[in-house]
Structure prediction request, 490 residues.
Amino acid sequence: MNCRSWCRFVLGLLAAFALVAGSPLRAQQHPAPVAPAAQAPSSSAVDLDALAQEATGWLTDLIRINTTNPPGNELPAAKYIASVLDKEGITAEVIEVSPGRGIVVARLQAGAMADSSQALLLLGHLDVVGVDASKWTVDPFAAVTRDGYLYGRGAIDDKGMVAANLAVFIAIKRSGMRLGRDLVFLADDDEEQGGAASIKPVIAKYWDKFACGYALNEGGLVTLDNGKVKYVAVQSSEKVPYNVTVTARGTSGHASRPLPDNSVVHLSAAIAKIGAFEAPPEPTAVTLRYFEGLAPIEDDETGKWMRAIDQPERLELAMNHLGDMNPAWGAMLHDTIVPTMLDAGVRVNVIPSEAHGNLNIRLMPGDSIHDIIAQLTKTVADPQISFDIAPDSGENAPASSLDSPLYKTIEKVAPQDFPGAIVVPELSTGATDSAQLRLHNVQAFGLLPFPLTDADDARMHADDERVPLASIRTGVGFLYHVVSSFVQAQ
Prediction:
């Protein structure tokens, strides 16, 4: 065989081999190797700028749906979110908890056999507190954009969190990421009042819809100082809220004839004594770790008093100094009792037989409301005064574990997004739905992801609530990195 014939022979054999190798039979006999598990999409794989713009649009729409509680009327907002999810091919269920009150829930499944006790829940609430519109510089429900801020009731508490959760949930669906655990989205209702449509009855009746072992909710804080994130506070515990009615009883009569047992006078005196009452400090393990983490990054004077918390003989003095520097710091260290409402009289010329006041009490976890009432009774020392605890008050919930893999994920991701920032656990002075989740064996953490200054954080529940537009972009990115890192299949 000459050289040319030999070459044609070899080429023919190679062609025949290639044909057989590419045939269906060959593919069945020798399956292609399985590709390695996909890694979590990097920031470059997800257009976070575009995602933040979408989140801003959803937040704008949600602010314009007035869900002031009472009455709440969250159902239209729940239906709006369901329509957004539907456009993404995500099945969402809207549940009318009571007339006009609604929640929306959706789940991205890791697989048919996924363990729901390992699922991550993204939680936010749709209701907002009321406003005195006359004290706002913009319409509270118009979602006005001005000077780099989005204004509106719920911008921070808590429709901002809802919009960020929605953006991250949708981004992970779009990414096609292989999940190692279920990811659940829930926007609930009646958080601000904690009534018949709140998380407690929702858990009792609909737990199977959003069963999980981990949760990210409101309650934390990304603190912005001089344009840079200073620290990330992750809520892992919270104080226990109670409302107590103070009642003064006396003799009714004509206002032209003063009486020594005037109920208004006795109530006023009692409220003054209660306002001056200060419970002793009792820092928890979470607050000790919080101040221990912050002390090195604060100025020398502040750091000195934060470190003094570990010294029993200086603890009370430290609490007072820290409370003067930041009221939230003082409130983290002891029970607080704050008079919030007064009610008395039916006519200007009638001495009322009863006068009433409300005390908003926030207890350190584990403390007894009955012990506090006993102390207040002794402080007031007036037989005309009585105290009545409002029904459906708070419940003591255990703290979430700082050894939890979710907390560890936040600790790892935060410094990557915010170089130089530290992560500290926080005892929240306010109440959130996380307490009920913790009572249901969920490792729940508060992570409001938007970087905020102390001044903007103080607008929560106050006038001209707002969120910086730049912080929406940063917060959505931060939340995406935390969630994607936690739910991605390893």
